[in-house]
Every structure is written in structure tokens, then in C-alpha cells.
Amino acid sequence: MVQNILTESELPLMVVRQEALKHNVATMAAFARDHGLELAPHAKTHMSPEIAAMQLEAGAWGLTVATSRQARAVRGFGAQRIILANQIVDPVGLRWIAAELERDPEFEFLCFADSRAGVDILRAHAPARGFRVLAELGHPGGRAGCRSVDELLGLVGYIEQAEGVTLAGVAGYEGALTSADEVRKYLAQLQEAVEYLRVKNPILTVGGSQWFDVIGRDLVAVQATVVLRSGAYVSHDDGFYRERTPFNRVDGELRPAFEIWAHVLSVPEPGLAIVGMGKRDAPYDEGLPIPKRAGLTVVKMQDQHTVVHGDGLRPGDVLAFGISHPCTAFDKWRTLPVVDSDYRQVGTLTTHF
């Protein structure tokens, strides 16, 4: 008989709800397919071979990473097409990528560039078949990326004349923008940039966690392969992404897959409880954990403790919490039990951060 994992495990414990995980993978794959988009999920969210396999089996075009170390890991997960959605200037990482491209002729790798200096670094480490490059367009106040279409087209001209690199298309990231109007204006610039390219079957890749509904509408006619790099959807959450998911605006839903369970350790004052989980166990950078029991509020997290306001708690009580921000939840745990609706363990996820 399979035991309820919550009664057989030491707490705190973060679990993954199997039904929600499977639902989210299928839902996002269907959205991309129905809107003529490709999906290259951002593996930096989970860094899990088990989830990567689910995403690839659901039809993912490839996997996205942010660093060469992550690229090395997802190659081990079985990815044959990788987007490194970042500038890469690390010589050690570039040497490994170049060697992997030489070793496996079927391996496809793309990375971003937003400057001539960055392109020159790629050229200096390029394998015989070169690096495929996506010219990145940013926006004022954003992180990386050329700050105008004219600047990007100047970089495109430089890439086209350079040996060791091949232009594959254009990249952008809209996730830092705060309104649909801002996103539409930015997407229009990306589409304008693509129209100037002298590239057969260009790629246009965008972020796609908070605004994929706008992307699905506004880029429907662009003459390019549009690739979403959505990541947080796979587990969703009860906080940051619950409030921001495009499924609040269009048909469909994502379901929170994470729960963390912990004991009440102390009730030192009326209405104040100390719970035995902390910053090493649950994310806190984009919102504190969300109690599943009504009437409770998390007000502070420390290394090993969480301060909860609410009545009716006693030492030894077991509480469940949802999380906010999946990207800093997965990295807290090297193994995560996957549970069914009765909290029986039906699988295990491993993470490789």
C-alpha cells in the first residue's frame, strides 16, 4: 500500500501535484499549436530532466537556457535544439558549445547578440560551421538588446559580413513591459526588424510568460517562425503568475502545481505563529508563500522560520502553502516528490542547478 507522503516524510517538504503539472504542459503546448507558434520552454525555471522530457514529448520545438552551464545540462536531458537566450561571452562555455556542435552535426544551437563586441567574441570561438545568432532588440530601461531598430539593423549588417557567425533571426523580451499597449508597440518593432532581414525562414523569438495572448494575436501574420520561451507556466503558482497569466484574459487556465508543507513550531503570542520553513525551502523574491488555510497571512520569512499571523494555531499543526515565483522554487530542492490527489507519491523530479 502506498502511504500518504505527508505522514511518512520529514517536514518541511515541497511537493508537486501531478495532475497540475501534466495539465500545464499540455495546455501551453496546445496554446502554441493553436496560434501557429513554436514553444521552446525556458528550462532555467526547472532544470529538471523529467519535466524537459514531458515538454519535448508534448511537441516543444527545443529548450531555452540562460547560460552555457545550463546548456550543458539540458544537452544531457536530450535536447537537440537549444536557444541560449542571452549574450554569451564566457570562453570556457563557448569552447564547450563549439566542441558539441562539431561532435554532433544534428545539434542546433542559437544565441543572442546585441553588439559588435559580442559578435567578435563569438567569432573568436566559432566552430567550423559557425554560430547561429539572433540579433536582440531591447527597449529603453530593459536589460540587454539594441535600443532601436536602426541600431539592430546596423548590427545585422555587421553579422552578415562576419565570418564564423550566421544570422538566424531576431530576439526580444517583453516580460519587463507593464501594459499591453507597450507590448504591442515593442512587438511591432520586432516585426519591422524581421521584415528587413535577408534571411530565409527567419526566427523571431520572444519571452512569452506574461503576454503570450498579445503575442499570439499581434504576430500572427509575421513572416517568421515565432518561438515562445515561456518557462514559469510549467508549475504556475499561487502568487506572481496567478495574477499575471494571460489566461486571466483569454480562455484556458494554468494550475498551481507546488505546495510546501510545514509544522507550526511555536505560538509565542496570540495571533502569532512560527512555522518551520524558511528561505532555504520556499521562494520569497516575488512574493511570500500563500497559506492554503483561510484567515492566515505570511508576514515574514527568515532562514529557517516563517512568521504567520492568524488565530487557532497550535504547535504541531501542519500547514500547506502555495508559492510565488516558480523560478526560485525549483532551485531550493534537488529532489521533489510528485503526488496524486491523495498525496501518494507517484514519481520524483530531480533538479540540476
From TrEMBL:
Residue ranges constituting the D-serine dehydratase-like domain according to the UniProt record: 257-340
Taxonomic superkingdom: Bacteria
Molecular functions per Gene Ontology: alanine racemase activity
Native source organism of the sequence: Nonomuraea typhae
Keyword vocabulary terms for this entry: Isomerase, Lyase
EC number: 5.1.1.1
Pfam families found in the cross-reference section: Ala_racemase_N, D-ser_dehydrat
PANTHER family found in the cross-reference section: D-SERINE DEAMINASE, ZGC:162816-RELATED
Protein name (Swiss-Prot/TrEMBL): Alanine racemase
Broad enzyme group: isomerase
Family statement drawn from the similarity comment of this UniProt entry: Belongs to the DSD1 family.
Matches recorded under InterPro entries: Ala_racemase_N, D-amino_acid_metab_enzyme, D-ser_dehydrat-like_dom, D-ser_dehydrat-like_sf, PLP-binding_barrel
